[in-house]
Amino acid sequence: MTNGTHGGPEILENLKMELRRGCLIVAVLAQLRTEQYGYTLRKALADDGLAIDEGTLYPLLRRLETQGLLVSQWREEDKRNKRFYRLSPAGEQILTQLLEEWQNINTSLNKILQEA
Amino acid sequence: MSKASSHDSSQQSPSAKNATELIDRYLQAVRFWLPKTRRQDDLLAELGEDLRSQIEDKEGELGHPLENAEVAEILKRCGSPMMVAGRLGPQVHLIGPALFPIYVFVLKMVLFWILVPVFIFIVGPVNLANSGGHWPSAILNTFGDLWSGLFIAAGTVTLVFAIIERTSAHLGAECKWDPLKLPPVRKEERKPTFLKAVCELGFNVFGLVWLLLLPQHPWMILGPAAAVLKAGPMLHTFYIPFVLVSAFALVRSGVTLARPQWGWFPPLSQLAQSALVLIVFHSMIEAIGRTPSAYPFVVLQDAVANSPKYFQLAGIVNVSILASIVFGWLGVCIAAIAQTWQFIRYLRKRSSGMPRPASIGAQ
Known about the structure:
CATH superfamily of chain A: Winged helix-like DNA-binding domain superfamily/Winged helix DNA-binding domain
Oligomer: heterodimer
Number of strands of chain B: 2
Helix content of chain A: 55-70%
Structural class of chain B: mainly alpha
Shape of chain B: elongated
Low-confidence stretches of chain A: 1-5
Strand content of chain A: 15-25%
Largest sheet of chain B: 2 strands, antiparallel
Number of strands of chain A: 3
Distance between the termini of chain B: 72 Å
Mean pLDDT of chain B: 80
Mean pLDDT of chain A: 89
Strand order of the largest sheet of chain B: 1-2
Helix content of chain B: over 70%
Radius of gyration of chain A: 17 Å
């Protein structure tokens, strides 16, 4: 059921996806405080419970790089060329601010949930 | 930033070569769907590297080189080339979210409020009038033209909005709006009754056009019987009053639509219209009693004036019209009572200060 008022699994999936979308950016930025290439980043995120597919991660990395929050470099490792990403100084500042915002949201949510 | 080099396959095992070939085929298919930008190679190299890393991991986990089927499984999990290209490529849209509501509004207006009514009330009747009696082909032609017209209009509107989107001409409008110039709050029931008012206007236009065409095209009321029947003295006498009532109805529906804030107008004007119709019907019924003719509404054409079988037909048609007038008179009487009640209710609500019914909805 997609339009019903009873909330089918599809609706839950869409809401979960929306909820994850903003968190993924914070998670990617936080993960890239240490340099990594695409696949290891994806694995690290998945190991921590935030699985992300290639089609979502690579455009996100491009976007964050275009915004100046990440820097990347193609480099050879184990006889293969890999693109390594890490947080830029601007990215570090933004991450700090985003984490503060995240804390605020978390606090507010907890407060709302306790009141309810 | 250096460009990714192609994967060296000279020292690979046969299964590794197969996997590489399958990945290259996959990347080639993704490339086909990706927009041709300077980032295309970069994206594909990174995707290829990700896939190779996945294969490498899986091989480490299983302890043997992957078979083609296992590589295919990884690619399948990654998604079809078209889908992956769609996600990797830039997010493009013909009409963006800022313009989309206006686009839908204009499209609905053009298609359903302009094009369809024009075809139903103008093009269709004109085609029918010029069809020379071939009604089915005229109707089919009208629908065919309407179908083509809908596609062309929708395409044109979409193209115009796509150009506006590309030229960002709409961005200026976002800064210019003034909250003080927003329209007043719409009254309840405004939306469904607006539709009703538009339909009423359309039908009234159609009715007046139909009535005006009748003298030249009597078949529009008599059908095939127009070959042997023509309008009688009563129809000639009351033709102008009917046209006037029809014109009144058209003006009434136009004013109702144009001045929705005039809450008093719809119930009052509808009551006036019913009164006019009652006067015309009553005059007709009275005139029938005075007329010496047995065929007051339709008479035989001169060519068949002496044919007995057509006399019977003329008699049936006259009786049918008379019955319609009598029943019509009764119906309008009932409607007038209901409209009077509605108008009284409206006046009561107004005097008691209760929220007034929507002007159009008050009908």
